[in-house]
Amino acid sequence: MEVEFDYFADRLLGDGEIPPDGRHGLRAMRIIEALHDSAERGEPVVLA
Fold it and tell me: Which of 24, 26, 35, 44 meets the CB 3.0–4.6 Å disulfide criterion with 20?
């Protein structure tokens, strides 16, 4: 975690870009939702 915090602080203080953007977070949320759906159904869920 310390490495991540240092990287984030460096980007903020140096006015650098902080990838990934919100699309990465949205994709992660869709994956988590699919995992929950799969667990409830007891079968794989295909992501589109």
Answer: 24
Please give the full DSSP string across 17-32, using - where no structure is assigned. --SS-HHHHHHHHHHH
Q: What is the DSSP letter of 14?
A: T
Which tens digit of pLDDT belongs to each residue from 22-37? 888 899 999 999 999 9
Domain-by-domain residue ranges, the chain?
20-48
21 — pLDDT class (breaks 50, 70, 90): confident
Amino acid code (one letter) for 26: L
Q: Which residue reads 């949320």 in tokens? A: 29
Phi, psi of 31 (to 5 degrees): -65, -45
Amino acid of residue 6:
D
